[in-house]
């Protein structure tokens, strides 16, 4: 179901009987709360929602070209109508009464400034000097970037996407203990890049984008790194199930695009086979996973060494 279809049900009164308990108070949920319930149960595909105030000019065609060439071997032309037709078929644009407009997914993946239309689409990144949150942070920024990068012809990144920007922030504030061998960089940060890519990709792909007013939060402390993604686990999934490879795709199109670009392999085994054993080996303790009604968080203990074979 699209966001508009859920709101149509609300207007038709088909949500009667649904109640929300807040403390000792029981009340009917508001529109956004009901949409979040549908999203959590995977009955709502919010990513297909048209962003009516946007146009194709709000999308970065260089990033679109990279994606289509890399995944479909498809070379887009300067013909706008042809490109819009392709994007509609991929559910990255949708038809409106005024013609094709980007969907939420299209803005997230390719938007020139995604937060202009979706203020909840960024990663707030904060670096602290110590082990606790402090008012005077070293750096506190919100990364406003399309999820997917622009690639060179050989597949290397030309212009970074959201995940690469987050990796750059981590590299600035969590440098490796032995970054150089001669004049060559061995590792970009104290945390294995394969682990960081996995947890960042999961946060971006699985967050609940119906929750407005809050970004993914990346916190770097002197002894650990935290990634907090808005939205509870859907369909009653547990932390244990997620660790053991439970697959859920709250945002199917985003996950497919990230799989197409080889950020993930789609098996759902990244936490079990990569993140947990790698952190156990390098930090001596596992990552900590916490699920609540409002977010899912991953805390990585800072490794004391870097194993070159792990990245």
Question: In brief, what are we looking at here?
Answer:
34% of the residues lie in helices and 18% in strands.
What would your notes on this structure say?
The protein has 311 residues and is an alpha+beta fold. The chain folds into 3 domains: 3-44, no CATH class; 56-115, no CATH class; 119-310, Heat Shock Protein 90, CATH 3.30.565. Helix content is 34%, strand content 18%. The protein is built from 11 helices and 14 strands. The protein has helices spanning 3-12, 31-40, 61-72, 80-89, 104-110, 114-117, 162-173, 193-206, 239-243, 252-260, 270-283; strands at residues 20-22, 25-27, 93-96, 99-102, 123-127, 139-143, 150-151, 157-159, 180-181, 184-185, 216-220, 224-230, 288-291, 295-301. Strands 6-5-11-12-14-13 form a 6-stranded mixed sheet, covered by helices on one side. Strands 1-2 form a two-stranded antiparallel sheet. The protein has a two-stranded antiparallel sheet with strand order 3-4. It is globular.
Key attributes of the depicted protein:
311 residues, alpha+beta, Heat Shock Protein 90, 3 domains, 34% helix
């Amino acid at each position: 179901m699209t966001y508009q279809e859920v709101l149509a049900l609300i207007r038709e009164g088909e949500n009667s009987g649904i109640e929300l308990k807040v403390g000792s108070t029981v009340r009917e949920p508001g529109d956004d709360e009901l949409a979040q319930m549908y999203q959590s149960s995977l009955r709502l595909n919010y990513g297909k929602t048209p962003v009516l105030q946007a146009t194709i000019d709000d999308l970065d065609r260089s990033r679109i070209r990279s994606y289509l060439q890399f995944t479909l071997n498809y070379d887009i032309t300067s013909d706008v109508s042809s490109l819009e037709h392709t994007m509609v078929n991929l559910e990255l644009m949708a038809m409106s009464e005024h013609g094709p407009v980007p969907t939420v997914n299209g803005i997230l993946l390719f938007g020139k400034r995604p937060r202009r239309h979706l203020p909840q689409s960024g990663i707030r990144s904060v670096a602290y000097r110590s082990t606790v949150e402090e008012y005077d942070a070293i750096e506190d920024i919100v990364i406003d970037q399309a999820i997917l990068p622009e690639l060179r012809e050989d597949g290397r990144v030309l212009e970074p996407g959201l995940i690469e920007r987050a990796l750059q922030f981590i590299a600035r504030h969590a440098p490796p203990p032995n970054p150089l061998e001669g004049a060559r960089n061995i590792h970009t940060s104290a945390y294995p890049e394969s682990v960081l890519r996995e947890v960042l990709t999961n946060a971006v792909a699985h967050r609940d984008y119906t929750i407005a007013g809050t970004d993914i939060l990346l916190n770097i402390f002197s002894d650990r790194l935290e990634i907090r993604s808005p939205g509870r686990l859907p369909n009653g999934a547990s932390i244990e199930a997620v660790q053991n490879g439970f697959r859920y795709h709250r945002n199917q199109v985003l996950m497919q695009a990230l799989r197409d670009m080889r950020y993930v392999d789609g098996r759902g085994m990244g936490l079990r086979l990569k993140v947990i054993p790698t952190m156990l080996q390098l930090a001596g303790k596992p990552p900590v996973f916490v699920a609540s009604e409002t977010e899912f968080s991953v805390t990585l203990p800072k490794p004391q060494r870097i194993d070159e074979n792990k990245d």
